[in-house]
Amino acid sequence: MTIKLLTxxxxxxxxxxxxIDEYTRRLGFYIKFSxxxxxxxxxxxxxxxxxxxxxxxxxxxxxxxxxxxxxxxxEKGKQLDSIEFSNYLQKHMNSGIKQLVFVIGGPYGFSQxxxxxxxxxxxxxxxxxxxxxxxxxIIEQLYRGFTILKNEPYHHR
Length: 157
What we know:
Layout: E1 2-8, H1 14-27, E2 32-38, H2 49-62, E3 69-79, H3 82-94, E4 99-104, H4 112-117, E5 120-123, H5 131-149
Parallel strand pairs: 1-2, 1-4, 3-4, 3-5
Helix pairs in contact: 1-5, 3-5
């Protein structure tokens, strides 16, 4: 199984980018992982929120393979602690899927088409975080999940 993280827009903050790169590197010891950045939509001030979600949704869907399992990082998603998340990852690996895709949407969330295509939703917290910080948080949690599965000391129970 491979894991892909799709995001809208690049990370501007150099410190955040450095941490994202570090955890991406660490995660690579456990699983094939890729971070794919979909460029921001141009001329958004001329678009309604719904039109912006629609355009972003089309770009997200264009990046998917038919066999991908799509998980949305969504405020209304299921909340898991780190051990539950590691079990969630294990369950997907055991299922024989080729690619697990996590998606961080744009500022207004996801289009209905993306929701319809998704196989699940996860929320990292009831709090709201910047989309750039969520990238770091999900990659760190993926790394943590694999260290839990390998009984390594990164996650202290």
